[in-house]
TrEMBL record:
This is FlgN protein. Keywords: Bacterial flagellum biogenesis. GO terms for biological process: bacterial-type flagellum assembly. InterPro entries: FlgN-like, FlgN-like_sf. It comes from Clostridium frigidicarnis.
């Protein structure tokens, strides 16, 4: 079981590495504001996510109802423990990169929305509420 688990975790680690590289590439495209290249990144990220999910399903199939942490702790295989630790670090880096990308996307979207509202303001006449403030 440990050998199969090790093989699957190596493949999962490689898939997570490639996902991290894609997210880093997405970050640089967000900085450059290259919209067309960003659009193509979506499909690449989806494919990579699919690969990660497949390996996770295989790993869960091998473990059945056992906890991965418990299996790793009870194992005497140092390589398996090393792979597990590498995956934990990669997952942490993925979370940080994803959060950074999300923040940049939200900032750019907010800026674009504000610019569009200035370029093309509402055409409906404003009305006032009972406090004398403009209703929107």
């Amino acid at each position: 079981m440990e050998e199969k688990l090790k093989e699957i975790m190596i493949l999962e680690k490689e898939a997570l590495d490639s996902l991290l590289k894609l997210l880093e590439e997405q970050f640089s495209l967000l900085i450059k504001k290259d919209v067309f290249a960003l659009d193509s990144m979506v499909d690449k990220i989806k494919l990579c996510n699919k690969d990660v999910a497949e390996y996770e399903v295989k790993r869960r199939g091998i473990l059945k109802n056992l906890s991965l942490k418990e299996v790793i702790q009870n194992s005497s295989d140092k390589e398996l423990k090393s792979i597990f630790n590498d995956i934990k670090f990669i997952l942490n880096d993925l979370k940080i990169q994803k959060d950074s990308n999300d923040l940049l996307i939200k900032q750019n979207l907010s800026f674009t929305t504000k610019m569009l509202s200035h370029i093309n303001p509402k055409r409906t006449p404003s009305t006032y509420n009972s406090y004398g403030k403009i209703k929107r």
